[in-house]
Each structure stands twice: as structure tokens, then as C-alpha cells.
């Protein structure tokens, strides 16, 4: 965990049981490849590649982390080269990101990523919302639910009748965000994979809170998802928020977020904060988060590298 402590001030370690379970379990809809670097009998760093298996088959999501005391010795470059050398030939579009918190942005990191052949395609603002949010604040923001819609909240997997709709929204979340000239195909998550993803999280001690925007005829047209940590001292992660384009402009995004925060605080877990990230171009969601009380805490820079098929 020292790697993450060096990146994020105030980082609270992930419980070992949760972390080890997540490392060993399969990830529905993806193939995850893991790498560990050892030098002189000591842990140096780690890396992984996440390969989508149900679409975007030219993509690979790559991450490399090096322990603080081993940095600037070429180990990050070596781990990335090993990952890239073992990727299937059709994986020609590599994506990765670097996060900076509370002014800890190191231009050296950006330079190092550029030297590996990656170019910047997107920047996001990271922000945090201290908990609890006062009920009168939520009351002032909530307002009446727009006519023709209702909002419902669920812990764990949503009911089976709504899972296909949630899968469509899951597939749209990444594709809906601006990523420069990088194209991400919207691939719906099959209900079976959705249930497996939720089961994986719960087996590791985590859980989901999902609020859905439903039409009068029971169609899922919007959602927001909070991922709950196994240790309530850790932050709650805002996993995604999306309203279908044809249903925007009715205040559903704000209504969903308020409903999910109410559901979270009703659990009375003592969670310290909610963290989220929003693309610089997504001013609408950033405005919603500002109204809720989110404050900037850092930034996230996404990179891409194109490689020739071998």
C-alpha cells in the first residue's frame, strides 16, 4: 500500500482480505493480467493490463506503479515494456491514467509517461464531498421528482427487471465521456456479467448503492452508483452517473445524486467522504457536484499509445 500512500495524502489502506480477494478473482467481461517486479529480493512495483472481452477488442487498459524508493531507476519502463510485449496482436490501443492529489502533481510523471510513447487525451477533475451532508442542504436541492419519472434506490444488485437497463447505462458511461480523438464503443453489460460483478464486490466486502430514474412504464433512463468500501474509514467511490440523452434537461441527474446520498447516509456507516472524477468537458455534472458540496481534490490525466499490430 506504500505506493498509494505516496500518491494520495491521507490514503487509508485497503484491508488485506479485500485486496487479496480482488486480486485473485476473475473480472466478468474482462481479462486481467497482473505483473510484479522484484529486485534483490525486494518488491519493486506492479502492473496490470485489463483487456475488454465483449467489445473494444483493440483496447487494453494499462497501469504501472513503482514503490517510492525504487523510482527513477527504469523499473516503470521495464514493467510497461513487459506488459506491452505480452499483449495479443489486436490490442493496438493502450490506455492509462495518472492521478494527482492536493497539489502533489509531479510533472516528472507526465514526462515519464510521454517518454513511453503515450499522448494525453483527457483530463478530469477529482473532487471529494465530506460526509454527512446536512439534510436541509439535500432538501433544498431535491425538489419534486420530474413528472413522468420516479427515483428508487437499491443496495446490492438492482432487481432483475432493471438489470438490462443498468447494463446499457454502464456501457454508455465511458463512451459518453469526451476522450479527445479516442473512440470507445458503447458495449452493454449483460445482466449475468452485472450480477457477477456485484457478487465479486460483495465477496470482497464491498457493496453498491444504486439509484435509478424510472419512467412510468418501468424503463431505466438514468442511474447513479456509489461503491461502498469494506472499511468505512475509506472513502465511498462515485462509480458512475448517467441520464440517457433524450431524458436530460429535467433535473434527473441532481435528483439521482440526492437520492443516493440519502440512501448512503441512512445506512449510518460513518463514511468520511465520497470521491468522484469528472471530465473537464462535462461542465453539467461538475455543476451538480459543486451544488452538492464537492470540492476539488486533485486531477486525473488519461493517456493513449497506439502500437502497430504485430
From TrEMBL:
Domain N-acetyltransferase residues, every copy: 1-144
UniProt keyword annotations, A-Z: Acyltransferase, Transferase
UniProt keyword annotation of Acyltransferase present: yes
Top-level taxon of the source organism: Bacteria
Single GO molecular function: acyltransferase activity, transferring groups other than amino-acyl groups
Protein name: N-acetyltransferase domain-containing protein
Organism listed in the record: Propioniciclava tarda
Amino acid at each position: 500500500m506504500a505506493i498509494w500512500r505516496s500518491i494520495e495524502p491521507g490514503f487509508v489502506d485497503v484491508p488485506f482480505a479485500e485486496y487479496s480477494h480482488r486480486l485473485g478473482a476473475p473480472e466478468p467481461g474482462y481479462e486481467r493480467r497482473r505483473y510484479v517486479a522484484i529486485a534483490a529480493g525486494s518488491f519493486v512495483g506492479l502492473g496490470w493490463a485489463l483487456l475488454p472481452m465483449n467489445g473494444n477488442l483493440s483496447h487494453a487498459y494499462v497501469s504501472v506503479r513503482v514503490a517510492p524508493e525504487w523510482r527513477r531507476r527504469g523499473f516503470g519502463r521495464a514493467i510497461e515494456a513487459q506488459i506491452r510485449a505480452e499483449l495479443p496482436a489486436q490490442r493496438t490501443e493502450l490506455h492509462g491514467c495518472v492521478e494527482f492529489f492536493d497539489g502533489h502533481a509531479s510533472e516528472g510523471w507526465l514526462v515519464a509517461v510521454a517518454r513511453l510513447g503515450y499522448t494525453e487525451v483527457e483530463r478530469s477533475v477529482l473532487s471529494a464531498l465530506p460526509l454527512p451532508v446536512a439534510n436541509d442542504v439535500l432538501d433544498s436541492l431535491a425538489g419534486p421528482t420530474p413528472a413522468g419519472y420516479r427515483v428508487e434506490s437499491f443496495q446490492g444488485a438492482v432487481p432483475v427487471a432493471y438489470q438490462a437497463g443498468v447494463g446499457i447505462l454502464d456501457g454508455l458511461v465511458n463512451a459518453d465521456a469526451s476522450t479527445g480523438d479516442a473512440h470507445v464503443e458503447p458495449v452493454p453489460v449483460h445482466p449475468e456479467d452485472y450480477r457477477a460483478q456485484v457478487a465479486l464486490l460483495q465477496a470482497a466486502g464491498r457493496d453498491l448503492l444504486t439509484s435509478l430514474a424510472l419512467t412510468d412504464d418501468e424503463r431505466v433512463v438514468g442511474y447513479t452508483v456509489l461503491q461502498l468500501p469494506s472499511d468505512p474509514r475509506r472513502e465511498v467511490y462515485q462509480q458512475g452517473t448517467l441520464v440517457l440523452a433524450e431524458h436530460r434537461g429535467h433535473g434527473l441527474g441532481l435528483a439521482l445524486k440526492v437520492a443516493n446520498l440519502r440512501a448512503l447516509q441512512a445506512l449510518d456507516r460513518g463514511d468520511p467522504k465520497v470521491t468522484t472524477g469528472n471530465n473537464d468537458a462535462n461542465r453539467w455534472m461538475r455543476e451538480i457536484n459543486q451544488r452538492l458540496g464537492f470540492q476539488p481534490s486533485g486531477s486525473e490525466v488519461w493517456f493513449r499509445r497506439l502500437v502497430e499490430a504485430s
